[in-house]
Every structure is written in C-alpha cells, then in structure tokens.
Amino acid sequence: MSDVLTTMAYERARSVPEAIVLLAEGGEDARPISGGQSLVPMMNLGLAAPAFLVDVSAIPGLRSVGVEGDHLVIGAAVTHAELTSDPVIAEHAPLLARAAAHIGSQRIRNRGTIGGSVAHGDAAAELPVSCHVLDADYQVESRAGAEWRPARAFSLGYYQTDLAPGELVTAVRVPLRPGHGWGFQEYSRRSGDFALASAAAGVALDGGRISSVAIGVTGAADRPLRLDAVEQRLTGLTVEEGVRSITGLAGELDVADDPYCGASERARLIEAMAVRAVREACADARRDQ
Amino acid sequence: MTETLSSRTASTTRVVNQAVPRRDSHEKLRGRTRYAGDVDIAGQLHARLVRSPVPSARIVARDASAALQVPGVVAVLFGEDVPNNEIPTNTAGIKGRPLPPSWVLAVERVRYHGEPVALIVAESPRALAAAEALVEVEYDVLPVVSDPERALEPGSPEVHEGGNLLSQWRIDRGDVDRAFAEAPIVVEGSYEAQVVDHAYLELETGIGWLDDEGVINIKASTQEIEHYRRIAHIVGLPDSKVRVQAPYLGGGFGGKEDMTVEPYIALAVQRTGRPVKMVWSRQESLTARAKRHPVRMRYRTAAAADGTLLAHDIEIVSDAGAYPLLSGFVLLYITLNAAGPYRCDNVRVHSRAAYTNNTPGSAFRGFGGMQPVLAYEAQIDRVADAAGRDRVEVRKANAFVVGDRIPAGQRIETAVWLPQCIDAVLEAIGPRPEPSSPEHRVGLGLACNVQPYGRVAWMNDSASAWVGCERDGGVVVRCGVPDVGGGQVSSLAQIAAEVLHVPMDSVTVHFGDSARTPLAGRTTATRQLYMSGNAVLSAAEELRGQLLEGVAQVTGQPVSELTLTEGGVLTPGGVVPLAEVVAMCLASGVAINAMRTYFAPTGEPVTELVDSERIVPDFTFGAHAAYVEVDTRTGQVRPLRYVAAHDVGRAINPLSVRGQIQGAVVQGIGYALTERIVYDEGVNLTGAFYQYAIPTAADCPEIEVAILESGEGVGPFHARGIGEPPIGPCAATLASAVEDAVGARPATLPMLAETVLACVDQGGRA
C-alpha cells in the first residue's frame, strides 16, 4: 500500500492543443503524465503531489518518429523500449538506442518516454546527457505557441528544467550526423539502478584522427555535463592518444561527496565511463567507414 | 544442479530424503497464499506509529489534541496509556550490569531515529496519515553517539545511564602470549562489516481482534508466536488472554524474531474493542526495525612454520544501537565462532557490544556466527601464504576433527566434513572463465565456516508436537512452528508421512497458533527442523506403536508380528487399511493420537567461555567457492559462478536444502557487494528500496549446491540445521576471489567500488 492519499483529478488528452488547454487550466498544480515512471515514484515517496494529471500518452502525434530535413524528430511519448528497437532510431540516432537500453528494467522501458525523461530532469538519467551530446533540441508547446529549446540550456539543476507550468515537451529533434560513431557507458551498483556515473560520446574520424568529438557525463554535477575542454583536447588526436588524454579526468572534475558514493570514487567511475564511451564511439565510427 | 554425497548405505526412506515438491510452493507461486496482511475483518480500524525524527532527544511535550480532531481518528496513545510500557530484555547468561528495558512507546527520551513515540488508531489509512503530522511532540535534541568505539570512550554521551558498554564476552584459553612469542608466523588484520537490513518482501504486518473468551487474537507476520506472553504483560492481561497466530511468512531472516506490530495491535484492540490492522511501510521497516550488527574485528594469528594454527588474539567491537534486544546473544555467537572451524589451543577473544544512537541491532540470519567468517578466513589465507603452503591444504590440516574442543570448551561430537565440503566445491567450480576484456580480471575464491544450530543450552529449549489419525485414515500434525518460508511445515509433513507410511498428501499440518497448536518455540537459531522435527518424529513413532497395539488387541496377533506399511498395518492375514486400524484402536481403548515434547540438551549459563561442556546442540560446516570478475577500472565485482557445499547430516528434503542454500548465497552476495544502511550521525538515510541495493536475478551467478550427508546430525533422521549456515561464507568467498583477481583483499564490507579500486591499486595488476 502506498502513501498516496491525496485526491487528484485525471484527464486523458486526445491532442496537443487539448493537453495545452488542460495544463493551462490546471496551472501550478497540473502535471503532464505519460509513462509515469518518474512522476509516480515521486508521488509514492511523497515528493510530488500534483492535484491534476494530464495524460499525454495517447496523443497520436506524440508517438511518431521521422526524418524532417536535417533532423530526426521523435515524438515526446515515444517509449524507451521503442528507442531501443525502432529501425529509424537505429539508423539516425543510435546513441539514443544505446542509452535507452541502460534505463531501469524492461518493464520501465516499456512505459517510460523520452519526453518524460527530459522534462523530469534527473541529473543521472541516460537520455538528457545523450541529448546534450547530440546537440538536440526540445520542442516546448504552450498557449504562447511552440518553440525549440536547445537541450544543453534546458537542464538547470537537480530535477530542474527550463519548463514552466503550462508548458509541454512535445518532441525531441536530433541533427543528422552521418559518419559519426557513438558510445554510451554507465556504472551502477546493480543492474537497473540509477547510474552513479555514465558517459555518452560521439566521434567522427578522419584518417585515423578524431576530427569531431562530443562527450557528456552524468554524476559530475547537478545536470548533464559536456566536457568541452576534453573535446577540444581530443580533436586532432589519434584514437589511442585521445583515450590516453582522457586519463586524469577524475582529477579535473569537481564532484560532490554524497552518502552513497564518495567524491573520489565517483570521479574515477566517471573517468572510466568516459574512456570507454569514447573508445566505443571510435570503434563505431571505424565500422562506419 | 545439485550434487549429493552421502555416507553410509543408501537411504531406505520413502518420503524423507526425497526431493518432494514443498506443499506451500504451488500456492505461493500462484499468489494464493494468505499472508497476515491479506486478512481483513469487517469494521476494522487501522493503526500507525508516530516515530522520532531524531536519533537522540529528551521528550519535552506531547499533545494529541489536534490529531484527535481529525475525522476518523479514534484514539492516540502515548507511553502513559500502555499498562506495562517496559519491554523486559532477556538477559540469561549476559553478565554485567542489568540491561535496560526497551519501551513500547518512548516517554521521556528517544534514543534512535524512528523510535515509536505515539500510536494512532483510526477508521482509515487516510485519517492516520492526516493525524500523524498533527501529533505534536516537542524534542530537546541531545548529543548523538554513532560510532561504537567512540561510544566506549570515557566522556561519550551516554545512551543509557551507566555507560555505553552493553555486554562483553571473553575467551582466554591456553597461553596466548607465549604462543605468540614462540611462533615463527604471526599475521594481523583488521576487518569491518556494515549494517544491513533483512529486506524481506513482506513488511511487518498483522491484524488483531477480541474473541468471545475475551482473548486478544493477533494474526501477524512473526517468527515467534510465543511473544504472546510478552504482549499479555504489556497490555496487563494473563498470558492465556492473548493468542498469536503466524500464517506463512513472506520472509523473516531474524527481523521478525523480536516483536514488531504485535504489542501495538494488542493495545489498539484493547483500547477500542474493535479489530485493528497494522502494516508498517517500507520506510518504517528500513528506518527503525532492528538490523544486523556492524562489527570491527582486529585479529592477530600465530602459526607454526607449516601453517598449523597456534594462537588467535581477537578484539571485536559490535554496534548494538540504542537498545539491547538480542545484542548480548549475538555477541556471544560472534565470540564463540570467532576462530572458525579450525583447531586452536591458545585463543583470546575480547568482544564488546556498545550502545549508540543507531538503529538497534538484533537477530539476522547468521546471528553473529557470520561476521567473523570474513576475518578468520582471511587470517588462515595469510597464514598459508606466510607458510608458503597451499591455502586448501592448510585449511584441511587445521580443520576440527571429532573430539576437538572449540575455544569455548565444548567438544565436537559429530562428523566434521569440512575437507569433503572443500573438495566438493573445488571439483564443481570448474575451469576458470576468461575475462571479458583486457581491463577485467577473473579470480577464484574459497571460504569455509561453522555455524551452530539450535538454541543456547541454558535456554532449556523444547518443542512439542501432536500427531493423530482421522477416522478416514488421514494424518494430522499440530505443531506451533511459524513457517518463515524455509519449508518448516512441509518437512514436518514429510517426517510424519515417513513414519506412518502414508503419502505426503494425506498429512495435514496445523501450525503457528499459540492457542491451538502445541508450542514449538520460535523459528530462529536454525532450530525448527531440529527441534520440531524431532518432536514430530517422536510423536509419530509413538502413534505408530499405538496403531499396531490397536490391531494387536483386536486381531490377537502379537505386536511383533505387525508392521506399518503402505496403506495400513501388515498382518499375517493381510493389510488392514488405516481407517480400519483407527477403528480397531478406538474399539480397544487405544488412543489415535500422541503428543511428544523434544528437549534439547541443557546446560548451565556460562559467563566464562573456556570450559563450557555444552553451549549449543551441534554445528553445521560448509565450504563455498566462486569465480568473480573484477572490472579494474570501476571496481565492480561480478560473481560469475558460485558453488556451495554443506554437510546437512541428512537432507529431509533436498529441494528445501537447495533453496535455503541458494537463497542464503544471494543474501550473502548482497552483504558482500552492495547492501548497506547509511547513517549520518544517527539519522538513517536509507528509507527506500531504491537506496538499498539487494542483488537482482541479473546480478547473481548460477549457484550450484552440493549437499553432503554425513548422517551425523542431531535432528530427525540425523539431519543438521541449514537455515542460517550457508550465508556465512559468502563475503569471505568473494573477498578471497577479488584478492585472487587483483592481488589485494578487501577487508571492509560491502566491497563497493572505492574499496575494490583501492585493492586494484594496491595489487598493481591493473
């Protein structure tokens, strides 16, 4: 038996405009819900008590995946399980497929959605850090209209995002980057746990040298962290030089202590994940050449 | 896969020693078993505790008036409302100053985070939740002591008046100092184990009601129905006015050995006269229910040049938390088992349990026999290394043999199949797997243990059982055993079926009822099969004699010409069906039921652990081996393959034995690698399962079980207890495997990344 004892209202929206109206009417107390894999546990733990839930999971337009111009556009209600199995994702955003495979368990992946994950803003989550590395944008809709906001500016802190009451994430778009290789690595104490450290990487190679690289990590800060300085350092190096130059990253990070994982332990884990993600991305890039 | 190695001739039993499906498995798999929390009674109330949010404080004021205004709230009780608010502590054999009581509801002082302060009774869980925040308790926060060694230093804040030493035990056998002075090999080590939770699926739960005899009935998830006496004392009723029933449990592991919900349900029923249900939340369970004792252990071990153990000098400090509960006894078991399954004539152990403002420590599978395994197995490896000898050979050479005395004095009377267990696991573990990358290392670990079964001799333990026949030839067993999930009830049915030559299906077992089944004691201390099994065996044998007597009376055949066989009694004139045998008994004045009580060997309370002839009934020995893979970059330890062997004397049900061993190994892997309760100055930070890393199926390797049967246990059919022993060696096995993989050995549990990475750095093999 949970301790959820608050009375709350629930509406299932059939379209984005309807959802926007419902959210606007609900104001501060309304929250969108899709798979419920983050919000419902928060409610069970007494950390969230929304008075009004607007279910957006059945809105047809939010479940689509397709290429539009230079971007892959993914509906916000696409589930983690679909990310891992959709052939269009596999072709155009394989990093999301690899990252999503690390989320929770199959049961969680069957219900949790990409829009829910990025809006929830868990600093340890797999998809936000991947979106940082992919230079993705999130489509945010409200009564004021629709706009694309860059992922890298969207995360504001632990469970804090650039999303106001009444606003709904409706899509994620990822620039197409043919020829890049991708890697995602994560460490958790046991299978399915929240990651203590993870790393996402994208690499392009030119003649055996790294011509373009993006690396993002979790566990180092209150939001996903792009390692801009490391990226600059790696550009132009060979793969082995690049991997070697990540060594020592642990000492460069400013990681907070927490009761479940000491700062030095976590910094080493982040470094190990970054090394492996870059190595994986390089191997992936070589395969594509 | 299960392998069995048996001594003596092949078993001649039909039901016992056979891998028969447990009678409770099917219903549990289908989700149909009715646990205590599945019972609802029309008109029931709900109860909930208000607990202290701080680990140490004086209670300045309490006010329930606002809470009582909440619609649906029926009553709010404070300590003053409890007829006898003190819960006496069992102190038998614990020397030193008297142990303080614990409190049903704290009145003047709270000593740990989560200590109960008030009890709310209401019409609905919603009203309880609303009222909880409105029970006003004002705390004057006091200094916290959270480190057991600091707690023992002079000047530390006192958890209870008179200092923080709860109890201490000493062994001083032989001439330790001389042995160290003369020994060519001396090895030292410090070891530390953490606080862990039982983490059973079924939370603390129960329901109570008043019956027409004025008896408070409580159906609860408990390992001990005989708490009814304590409960009666608390509510101020005669013992006979409280009845406790324990349906099948969804896990106990020692966590339901002390009372949990029972006294609160009784108080609420007494106050309201209505049925009352209480279910603790996972957060309450993790925050406030008693835990396994964390320990710090310092070992010095002396050995001859060939690795023969000469002496141990051992200092152990255990964190007992805020109240005594069973800490003195757990410390006794830590002390008794500190030197492990090895002969050693010069042993000094000084063990102390200290009060702190942490969650109280109490019983947990292994009960103090477990923590020292980490230490004594590391020490014997160090001895072997220093002697330049094989670790396996040194273990075998030092293993107890029948006739040896344990350091506390008791003589080993039954077979010690430690070498056989070692051989079994090393044979079954198979070839070393290849590491999955150049950054991974694979290691093989081995560890042994000894764990007593049965209660301490001066508890004068006994168990009663009633076995009878129905007129249709069916068999009924009545025995007050709580079945915690280990197959206790099913094994009793097997024993009765074996003796009375009936199929398992025709035996019905009534169990776990303090009013209507003969009392059989608690399901703890790996005692139930041993105690209740012996009681059922003896009652069934008695009944068998009566059945033959009834036939003899009617047919005129001498009893010596009669045998009980499948379907009835075999006479020279043919088989008399059991239903007719029953009729013959009744016609000739022979009872068709028998009740017997099994008494364990008893002994005087001891405080000096040197020449004790009898402390525990007997011992179970075992050996485990495992391959692990260590990720040298992250310190992650992944068990690849695990083999456990124990001499169980005789397996009443090999399937249950295997289940006990596999379950214990999973629990032991969690203890070794990931599980811990995290505190910040007495505040328990671990309030939800997502913070408490129990291994999942995906984290566990294949666990192979080798069942060894020396035929020398003191239980029914020469069985030994197996409930607790197999959790013992896990942490030491995995620590030894990590050492084999990376070149240095973790000495602190759990073996989190930081600890293992330090070993990787130290070992220099990355």
In words, what does this structure look like?
The complex is a heterodimer of chains A (289) and B (766). Helix content of chain A is 37%, strand content 26%. With 289 residues, chain A is an alpha+beta fold. In chain A, the strands form four sheets. A five-stranded antiparallel sheet of chain A has the order 4-5-10-6-7. In chain A, strands 11-12-13-14 form a four-stranded antiparallel sheet. A three-stranded parallel sheet of chain A has the order 1-3-2, with helices on one face. Chain A is globular, with a radius of gyration of 19 Å. The model of chain A has no long low-confidence stretch (mean pLDDT 94). Chain B folds into three domains: 36-142 and 204-279, Alpha-Beta Complex (Aldehyde Oxidoreductase, domain 3), CATH 3.90.1170.50; 295-456 and 605-763, Aldehyde oxidase/xanthine dehydrogenase, molybdopterin binding domain (Aldehyde Oxidoreductase, domain 4, 2-Layer Sandwich); 462-599, Aldehyde oxidase/xanthine dehydrogenase, molybdopterin binding domain (Aldehyde Oxidoreductase, domain 4, 2-Layer Sandwich), CATH 3.30.365.10. Chain B contains 18 helices and 31 strands. In chain B, the strands form eight sheets. A seven-stranded mixed sheet of chain B has the order 4-8-2-15-12-13-14, with helices on both faces. Chain B has a five-stranded mixed sheet with strand order 1-31-28-27-19. The longest helix of chain B is centred in the last third of the chain and has 28 residues, at 528-555. Chain B starts with a strand and ends with a helix. The mean pLDDT of chain B is 96. The chains are: A alpha+beta (289), B alpha+beta (766).
Describe the secondary-structure layout.
The complex is a heterodimer of chains A (289) and B (766).
Chain A: E1 9-12, H1 16-26, E2 30-33, H2 39-44, E3 52-55, E4 65-68, E5 71-75, H3 80-85, H4 87-92, H5 94-100, H6 106-111, H7 114-120, H8 126-133, E6 137-142, E7 145-150, H9 151-154, E8 155-157, E9 160-161, E10 168-175, E11 181-187, E12 197-206, E13 209-218, E14 225-226, H10 228-234, H11 239-246, H12 249-252, H13 263-288
Parallel strand pairs in A: 1-3, 2-3
Antiparallel strand pairs in A: 4-5, 5-10, 6-7, 6-10, 8-9, 11-12, 12-13, 13-14
Helix pairs in contact in A: 5-8, 11-13
Chain B: E1 2-6, H1 25-29, E2 45-51, E3 57-63, H2 65-68, E4 73-77, E5 86-87, E6 102-103, E7 109-110, E8 116-122, H3 125-132, E9 136-141, H4 148-151, E10 165-173, H5 176-182, E11 185-193, E12 205-210, E13 216-220, H6 228-235, E14 242-245, H7 262-272, E15 276-279, H8 282-288, E16 295-303, E17 309-321, H9 327-336, E18 346-355, H10 371-387, H11 391-398, H12 418-429, E19 440-453, E20 462-469, E21 475-479, H13 488-500, E22 507-511, H14 528-555, E23 563-565, E24 568-571, E25 574-577, H15 578-587, E26 593-599, E27 618-631, E28 637-647, H16 654-673, E29 679-680, E30 683-684, E31 702-709, H17 730-742, H18 753-763
Parallel strand pairs in B: 1-31, 2-15, 13-14, 17-18, 21-22, 28-31
Antiparallel strand pairs in B: 2-8, 3-7, 3-9, 4-8, 5-6, 10-18, 11-16, 12-13, 12-15, 16-17, 19-27, 20-21, 20-26, 23-24, 24-25, 27-28, 29-30
